[in-house]
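REVIEWER CHECKLIST
Item 1: Sequence provided? yes
Item 2: Single chain? yes
Item 3: Sequence as submitted:
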Amino acid sequence: MVAMSPGSESLRSKNTTATAGCLAPQFGVRPFREISVLPLFGFSLFLLTVAPQAAFPQNMMSSSSSGGGTRLLSSDAAILEIEDIKKDLPCTVTSVKPVLGFDLRFHSGYDITMPLRELSGEGGNLTIVLKVAPDNAKDSPIYFSQRYTVPEIDEDARGDAYLQGSFDLGEGDYHVMWMMRDKQERVCSSAWDVSATLPAKDQAMKLPIAAHAVEPSDLEFFKDEPPVTRIAGPETLHVKVLINFAPQKASSASMAPVDTSALVSILRNISREPKIYKFSLVAFNMTDQRVVYRKENTDQINFPELGKALAGIKLGMVDYKKLADKKSETDFLAKLIQDELGHNSTDAVIFAGPKVMLDHPIPAENFQEISDISFPVFYMNYILTPQQTPWRDSIGTVVKKLKGQEYTISRPRDLWNAWADIMGRIAKTKLVTTAAASKK
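Item 4: Structure as written out by the authors:
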């Protein structure tokens, strides 16, 4: 198999794993006759910002990401400027419609397919240059650049090379001009329009990316979260989060990027709440049946540290002894819930993660000690296709017995609405508890 990798990496004659953050999502392989190419989704393009009048004549662009200068060839600049559609280098480019992710950013991009025989020879480079112009600022476009190193490929190679690129957008309309050049100076180019628009029922959501903004995609899921100004006073909260970091399909051997992004987005949404001044986080994995990360009473969630801990999860591999014990998953979850809720001093406990379908229910006697808890319990159940598994899972059953609230998270608006409701309920409980304590 042949894999196409961006930047200084080269095409490799084996299947590879693209690393995003500290979890390495395994991307699927697109089959062709004898040779197939590993699709590399959403590589982060190099962002270039340019002064609209001086850019092309001087062939110099100020790079906001590197702090230095980056030169654009005059021939490339001309193709992008006059939108000269070329097919000297045979390829097919398909635009990707902007989609709002759980991180509340519109993700757009393109798919590229080209015959491997067009890359045959001793190797070389493929250079991609992208120009994205908001409709309200056509004279101030944003430029991206990416280079691929191509290895030696046999002349009789059959099949197609398949590449993907992505970038992020704020609300608005945009015009995109794209080109790719090989070592022989052959060019494939295309142009298209895209529109990123929130439906009327989602207008209340506040996006972290400004309208008409163009930014590179960031697949570093576990980067640091910017500091948040916390609200001091009697209404400040301490919450505990129990999150099951696992793929939607328990049998999967890896975390899909969409799953990782959704679970991290749930955590980031919680971490950005200014009314929360202390966090307790317990990350566990039902397949491994173990807690992989724990931090108590911290001022903020340490995402890089969490990512490193999650990198040690070996999905698809189960200890033989646990596999032989048909009730091991049930026992693990029951003990986890008893330990974390039975000795809890926080204002609320929030479960999050994909459905956990166990063969054996947790015995009712396991919850006698925590049946009279005074703090609210919530479950943010992440599932992209709830209609395929409409019944309540094991965690949801426990939350219901504890008179908690469960929320189905299958779209960005679900996360937004669920968190608004959760904070309202926590604040109400806190107010009642504080009032009762003041009367004693």
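Item 5: Key structural point noted by reviewer: The chain has eight helices and 20 strands.
Item 6: Recommendation: ____
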